[in-house]
Amino acid sequence: MNNHSFKKKELKAEILAVSFSLLMAMILLILILLWYKWKKKKLKFREDFELPLFSLSTITRATNNFSVNNKIGEGGFGPVFTANLLE
Question: 16-41: per-residue pLDDT in tens?
Fold first, then answer.
């Protein structure tokens, strides 16, 4: 084996090592960015579902004292009423 072919193989090995390292760095960067985006979306998702709290008197007024006419169904936690909270 001559010196020239040894240097060629060594150069190929170096190019392969650098290419593989860059590929792994890019994959890691993409995974970090996706994780960050997912985390940010998860936090935003939580914020979107903050429900307002209403007093019993407000709910009683909005459902016309839980009138049968405002009952729209029955769920696992009891009757479900429609309410007009804009008045």
Answer: 999 999 999 999 999 999 988 887 77
The Cα angle at residue 81 between residues 78 and 84, in degrees rounded to 5: 150
- How far is Cα 53 from Cα 64, in angstroms, rounded to an integer? 18
**Cβ proximity of 82 and 66 under 8 Å:** no
pTM over 0.70: no
CA distance between the termini of the chain:
93
Nearest to 59 by CA among 69, 47, 67, 49: 67
Which residues partner with 75 through β-bridges?
78
Beta bridge partners of 73: 80
- Measured CA to CA, the distance from residue 45 to residue 23 in angstroms comes to 33
